[in-house]
Structures are given as C-alpha cells and as structure tokens.
Amino acid sequence: MNVAGFVSNGAGSTTLSLVAGDTVTLSGATPSISSTTFGCSDTCEGQSFTATSDGLQTFNFSNSSPTPATLTLTCGRSSAPPAGGGTAATSDVSVAVGAAQGAGIADAVGAAIQTRFSGGGIATRGIFLSTRGHGGDSPLAAFISLDARAFEGRFSGSAATLTLGADMAIGPNAVAGLLASVAAANGTLTGVGTNVTSVAAGPYFGAQFGGLTLEGYLTYGRPRISAGGPAYSTDRTMGALRLSGTTQLAGLDVSPFASLTAFQERHPAHVFGGAAAPAKTVRGLTTSLGGRVELAETGGMRPYVSLAAEYIAFDDGLGTRTNRLMPRLGAGFSAQAGNGALRLDLDSGSVGAGTRDLGARVSYSLRF
User: Greatest CA separation found in the chain?
Assistant: First the structure.
C-alpha cells in the first residue's frame, strides 16, 4: 500500500489504519523534512515505523523549505523490516546509550585524573566524589560518579550512569586504575518502548607531560536490550583518549582539548517491535575538537562557555554508513560550597542521525 502526500512550507499529516507488525517506510524526504512520528530531522529518507498494535496512526511532517516536497509512505508486513528501519533501529539505541555511558565514564576518569594531578577537580557533568586528600600523599585513590542525560528524536528518553574506580600512582606524573560502570536507559525508539541496562569494566590511565594532560580508558560490557520483543544481550567494547591543556589568554583561562571515542557492539539475531532482525555489528567513532573559556568571577560564581566540533562516523551493521559534523555547545558556572565546589552545567549536541542529546547537571566535588 502506497500513500502519496503533499507537504508544503509548514506542517502536514496523514493517518493510516495499521495492524501490529506493519512497517511504514518514508521516501521522497528532502533534508528540509522532519517528522516527530519517525523521530528524525534532515535524515528522514528511508526511515521506517513499525506498528506495535492495531489501530489508527497519524504521521506528522514539517518542511522548513519554501520548496514543496512530495512524500510517499510505503506500508507492508514483513518478518524482517527493511534496513534503515526496524532492523537498523536497535543500532540507534546502541549509539545513544553507548554515548551516555561513554561520556559518563570519560567525565569520571577526567575528574579523577585532574584531582590526582591538581589536588582537586570537578566533573563536567553529574556528581563526582573522590577520596583524594583523605589519605594525604597516599598512592591510592578512589572515586564515584553519577551522570544523567536526556535524548530527543529517533530515540527519545533518558539515561543515567554510575561509575566507580580506584587507581594507583605509578610515578610523579602517571596514574593507572580500574573502573566499573552501570548504565540504565528508558525511552521510545521509532514508536517502540525500549529499555537498556549496561554493565562495563576495564582499565584507565592518566599522564602529564609538557603542560598537557592525556587520559583514557578501555572497557568491555554486556548491555541488555528490550525493544518490543524478548530481551537479549550484546557485546560492547568501548574506549576513549583525551588530550587537554590550559593557558591564559587576555586574562582568561582557556582550555583547548581534543578527544577520540570509539565503540563496537555485536548484536545477535533479535526481535524489534514484534519483527525479526538479523545479527549485526554496530560501530561508531566520534572525534571532538574544542575549548572552554572560564570568565571572570561574579558574585562568588565563575561562569564558563564551551564550544566543540564533533565528527561522528557510524556503521549500523547492515550496510549503511553515515558521517556528520555537529557542534556541541555548553555553558555553566562553578562556585565554592562548604569544603567543596558546586557546578551547574548545560550542554546540547547530537549523538547520531536523528537523535539529539541535552544535559542539565548539578555537580559537587569534595575533598575529604
């Protein structure tokens, strides 16, 4: 069944009567087309929606261009939805949850390393507590970090990550340790309720040289995914490297940085939205280049702004590869609070095609 629709400069919609298992695929979508139903913006061509129950489904669209676009919805039933739709959908949740857990681990490691080398430190998101300072000049230290993140678009929902670690100084300018991380996410993926839990563990390190700090980690995890079918487990390997420094410019503290994050996740054959999906290996690579500027203290608070360019390369494991260059914006402030430091952070960016992320965090760093 094909339904051709006309969307002018503005919004439009059409309603179809579907039964559970029907897959609706969108074609004719130009980059100016976005759809809340398909959960996409500027990448809607070929996106699919799988009905999870019988009934009427309204498909909403908007066109940001004055040039009209003719859209076609192709509806059919299949035990294996087309690539880019149902079978590829769990790739999107791998990206979103992997990005949330990876960021939570990276921030925890970064705060721990900065605490080690500077005697104090603040996580860039979440809550960070460290035992550094409790044992004087002890070569051992431990930390616990809590991170939260929200997603909107193709995957809409939220995720939280708890990370714990312990490390040992292996010289005056080097640290090595082990970490464990637990992440949980809930949301909807192309109209299907999705839940993910992920446990990961591995080594991390930090080193200082020439006024720069290099830090990184490598983890192995077993995420468990439930998306409109029996829950199943995947194998995920994830790692990151980050190089940063701080300099003075016009009386301001400027901290440029560069980072590289990569993951690989193996999915067995599974069920998504009531339909069968084949085994696949999802891969992602994100490179980031940017900086943060700390402004002058005002009223006991020191605000900052940050800007980074993120290049995201993604392979959904089914033959589709995407590359995107996206900005990540951030702002916030820090202030002394008792024996620690309080910080509010806001940031927004993208974790892949059709999914945006937004963070709003209150952080507290304490030496004890």
Answer: 72
**50: β partners:** 23
The tokens of 158 are what? Answer: 């939220």
The pLDDT value recorded for residue 130 is 53
Rounded to two decimals, what is the model's pTM? 0.68
All residues at 6 or more sequence positions from 53 whose CB lies less than 8 Å from its CB, including other chains: 20
Give the per-residue pLDDT at 124: 42
Q: From the CA atom positions of the chain, what is the Rg in Å?
A: 22
What contacts 38, CB < 8 A, 6 or more positions away?
26, 44, 47, 48, 49, 59, 154, 190, 354
d(CA 254, CA 123): 17
> Using CA atoms, how far apart are residues 273 and 278, in angstroms rounded to an integer?
13
Cα 171 to Cα 173: distance, rounded to the nearest angstrom: 5
Token pair for residue 65?
Answer: 């261009």
Contact 368, 131 (CB under 8 A): yes
* C-alpha to C-alpha distance for 356 and 326, rounded to whole angstroms: 10
Could you read off the pLDDT of 107-127 as tens digits, one per residue?
A: 778 777 876 776 444 334 444
* CA gap 261, 242 in Å, rounded: 9
Least confident segment among 69-73, 84-88, 159-163, 206-210:
84-88
**Is the confidence at residue 295, as pLDDT, over 80?**
yes
Nearest to 192 by CA among 48, 76, 72: 48
pLDDT greater at residue 140 or residue 20: 140
Closest C-alpha to 6, from 25, 28, 38, 23: 28
pLDDT tens string 245-255: 888 888 788 98
Name the DSSP letter for residue 367.
B
Contact 122, 341 (CB under 8 A): yes
Q: In whole angstroms, give the CA distance from residue 295 to residue 301.
A: 10
Phi, psi of 227 (to 5 degrees): -145, 75
pLDDT score, position 55: 65
